Amino acid sequence: MAGIYVDWGGHKLKLTWMEEVMPERELITSVHAFCFHEGQLLMVNLNDRGWDFPGGHIETGETVEACVCREVMEEAYVMGDCTLLGAIEVNHEENPLWNPSSPYPEVGYQVFYRMDITEFLPFDAAFESSERMLIRPEEAAHYHKGWQKGFDEIMETALRVRGLSIRKLQPQETPPYDLLLLADPSRELVNAYIAEGECYIAEEQNDSIGVFVMVPLTNGTVEIKNIAVREDKQGHGIGRKLLQEAIEIAKSNGYKSIEIGTGNSSIDQLALYQKCGFRISDIIKDFFVQYYDEVIMENGIQCKDMILLRMEI
């Protein structure tokens, strides 16, 4: 959206909704969730400001998604699957009352997720809220006393994004080659590492839109051999969601580190992997020249070298 100006307690701020953006962690001031169940929106009655969306501040050592899951649990007593929507940039550069000693950055971000609720727990009201309810999404502005124009765009994004389910490919199922070959054009190599590892499929309403394959290595390390998102679904935070799921699977299986590789020409993938916490660990020169029959071009660059990245977990 184009930036809008608001008055928060006498402070003139510029707010800009940025879809699919995940800011640097130190610039995030709060994390919030639009939670849905069977087409209805969940609202919580907060003790200090009335009906609102669950959300709050990141605690020390907490990831952004872990924060939103905790806040939703504390305020609404529900669990679910999260999908990144984007962030509101909160800009104080034109605020004459801006205090440089403020604990918040001059340009900060409020991150928003969609949560598709999978479980309702007994509502104990032990934290910051007194009640919860489900409403029609179009009723949100009626209940939320601080509703602003930017929330309309977030709601539009949330209604457009469906929750993901990620499951392991069953032995009797055919691998989703249409997805796997997006990341690796060699069917022979794809078949080889699927046989060695485990393939996971991301689905929306039983429609396969993403995939990743994990292969165990030695010394407590597992490698993501293939990760891909269907072309019409790219740019919606799904790749990040797949990576996060792969990391959680690796942790739950007792691995100590996780590796992933990509080509020197894969600029977007290199950026995403590093934003998710991976660091470049090695370069295998001429890997794609040696093992692939056809020349691979991407972003106007010939893909020659394998860039390996690693994360300690």
TrEMBL record:
NAD listed as a keyword: no
Domain of life: Bacteria
Every N-acetyltransferase domain range: 164-302
Classification via InterPro entries: Acyl_CoA_acyltransferase, GNAT_dom, NAT_camello-type, Nudix_hydrolase, NUDIX_hydrolase-like_dom_sf, NUDIX_hydrolase_dom
Molecular-function annotations in GO: hydrolase activity; N-acetyltransferase activity
Listed Gene3D superfamilies: 3.40.630.30, Nucleoside Triphosphate Pyrophosphohydrolase (3.90.79.10)
Signal peptide: none
Domain Nudix hydrolase stretches: 26-156
Keywords: Hydrolase, Transferase
Name under which the protein is recorded: Uncharacterized protein
